[in-house]
Design a protein that fits this description.
This protein has 19 helices and 19 strands. It is of the alpha/beta class and 570 residues long. It has three domains: 220 residues, FAD/NAD(P)-binding domain (3-Layer(bba) Sandwich); 103 residues, no CATH class; 141 residues, Alpha-Beta Complex (Polyamine Oxidase, Chain A, domain 2). It is globular and about 65 Å long. 48% of the residues are buried.
Length: 570
């Protein structure tokens, strides 16, 4: 079987065709190809990875969808995922600032999320001594939810099934409630509520709409710190695609799927795909890593869907969309106070009010953005830093309808669109100046990703960043299932298990398990002698020689005259 990212596809039938090369699709491909299946992964973009892919501007790397990963220590779920996929030996991570992997900037107030759960709790109690009882009770509840979520995939046999309600009693009790309701039951101080709510950006919903269970899961995911992949998200993708190819799977980029081929009148069955080129490729089953609307309405067509599924699709809401500013700057950002930790910046207001402001259609209203996430990737990934230029990603969530007049434009945008982007960039910079004074004067390159960018490169409905909206109506038993109502048609990705690098990755394993008749934990126990490497982003004293040498080589590029900005390319 042909094993490369370009060229003519072999004229043969596959066991599984996977549409989309996000980490969900790649995880499924690894599990299936490892079992001996003929697997074909089709990606419409010119690089694999979906949100996890990396790209370069003037030689400097950016990753739009990977800003940190949690639970990477031995025995924790993300580590077990990478070990189980057989890629742990091929990747490495940096531990972000353990004293503040997340920095809360709330008006003039500051608070850091420590990577130690007990330290985090003590810091909160020290700051809010009158809320000690509520803080302790709330964080204990969050930890219990986190532990109970880990139980679900491991349940075996009738007895364990019967005891599930007792072993997951906190999940059952609190699953009907929003984040705001549960937080407000426990603590009353508005600033404390905002601190505990601030990771809402990791699911994109305000506290009044967000599922408490989902938010608790995210808090637990990062409870012991955040980690950034060495080489950015693209390094994860490379490790995964190499593993697929090692098992003789085929990955095709720049290959868009026009439709999923369905046969049968009453009994529907997926039999393959038709490419944008008109070529038809057949398979025993089809797996879509795209979101439900893209999969069912665009690729399959409503004529093949039941009334029940059409009704569900009509009620499905999608997560927020985003603006993402990519900057290369010629300045010492450490002197400005940045480190490897993320910055969540919001005004000192109720978060539901802030979110409503972020969702206004007129996004140019106001001098600065209400909410912003700031990540300095060259500090998270020291091996990428050349000693001079830092890379920064700044993100805010917006209403998709702010770009309604541009939704039908091709990739070559109109002057009006480009002018609109420039106005947005200026508003970003006004906001960033409050965090990094002097940054505007030191920008050597800038680019802005918009909802149109998300749609074009990632084929997401309304430019969404997290798949389906993670409200009470779209998670757990109400989420879309890996096995569809159409025979031999499956799904994976952010709308199935959960979003994020880990959530999407596990969705692929779950889908492969449904196809193979295997349990998730069985599929992740097949690889041996896997060891995930973790280094400290804030301390280079224990870096191995090979890493130190790479950093030196990177810095030597500038001294040898290899400087993308030496001629003033700004």
């Amino acid at each position: 079987m042909q094993d490369k990212l370009s060229g003519t596809l072999p004229n043969e039938k596959y066991d599984s065709i996977i549409i989309g090369s996000g980490v969900g699709g790649l995880s499924a491909a690894i599990c299936l190809a490892r079992e001996g299946q003929k697997v074909l992964v089709l990606e419409q973009h010119d690089v694999p990875g979906g949100w996890c892919h990396s790209f370069y501007l003037n030689g400097y790397r950016f990753t739009p969808g990977v800003h940190y990963v949690g639970l990477l220590e031995k025995g924790q779920s993300s580590c077990e995922l990478y070990e189980g996929l057989g890629i742990a030996n091929d990747i490495a991570f940096y531990r972000m600032n353990p004293k503040g992997f997340d920095h809360c900037w709330i008006g003039n107030e500051r608070f850091d999320y420590s990577a130690n759960w007990e330290d985090f709790k003590d810091d909160l109690i020290t700051r809010f001594p009158n809320e000690k009882k509520g803080i302790t009770k709330y964080l204990t509840l969050v930890r219990n939810i986190g532990r109970q979520l880990q139980i679900i995939p491991t349940i075996r046999g009738l007895w364990q099934q019967l005891t599930v309600p007792f072993r997951t009693k906190h999940m059952g009790k609190y699953s009907p409630f929003t984040l705001k309701r549960v937080i407000n039951w426990h603590v009353k101080d508005p600033l404390l509520q905002n601190i505990l709510n601030i990771q809402f950006g990791n699911h994109g919903l305000p506290p009044a709409k967000a599922s408490f269970i989902m938010h608790a899961a995210i808090m637990c995911h990062y409870a012991e710190g955040g980690f950034y992949p060495m080489g950015g998200g693209g390094a994860l993708v490379k490790a995964m695609t190499n593993k697929i190819k090692a098992y003789k799977g085929v990955i095709k980029t720049s290959t868009a799927v026009n439709r999923i081929l369905i046969e049968g009148e009453k009994h529907k069955k997926a039999i393959g795909v038709e490419l944008a080129s008109g070529e038809k490729i057949f398979a025993d089953r089809v797996i879509s890593n795209a979101d439900p609307d893209t999969t069912y309405l665009n690729l399959i067509g409503q004529e093949h869907l039941s009334k029940k599924l059409l009704n569900k699709l009509s009620k499905t809401k999608y997560s927020c969309t985003s603006l993402m500013l990519f900057l290369t700057v010629d300045m010492d950002v450490k002197k400005a106070g940045l480190d490897s930790g993320n910055i969540w910046r919001i005004p000192n207001k109720d978060l539901d009010t802030i979110n409503a402001d972020m969702q206004k259609v007129d996004i140019l209203e106001g001098e600065e953005f209400s909410g912003m996430f700031i990540s300095c990737t060259s500090l998270k990934d020291p091996i990428s830093f050349d000693g001079r230029y830092h890379t920064i990603e700044a993100i805010t969530y917006i209403n998709y309808d702010a770009f309604a007049e541009f939704k039908d434009e091709a990739i070559e945008r109109t002057p009006k669109y480009l002018e609109f982007k420039e106005q947005i960039i200026q508003k970003f910079l006004v906001t960033l100046e409050k965090v990094i004074p002097g940054i505007t004067a030191n920008i050597v390159h800038k680019d802005l990703g918009t909802p149109m960018t998300n749609e074009y490169y990632l084929n997401t409905t309304r430019g969404n960043v997290y798949g389906t909206e993670k409200s009470l109506k779209h998670i757990g038993p109400f989420a879309y299932k890996s096995k569809s109502e159409i025979e031999n048609m499956y799904m994976c990705g952010a709308s199935i298990v959960s979003h994020g690098v880990a959530g999407a990755g596990y969705s692929g394993v779950q889908t492969a398990g449904a196809i193979l008749g295997r349990r998730q934990d069985d599929l992740l126990s097949l690889e041996k002698d896997q060891d995930l490497r973790i280094f400290e982003a804030e301390d280079d004293s224990n870096y191995p020689e090979w890493m130190t040498k790479k950093i030196e080589v990177k810095k030597a590029r500038l001294t040898s005259g290899v400087d993308a900005f030496a001629k003033g390319e700004k």
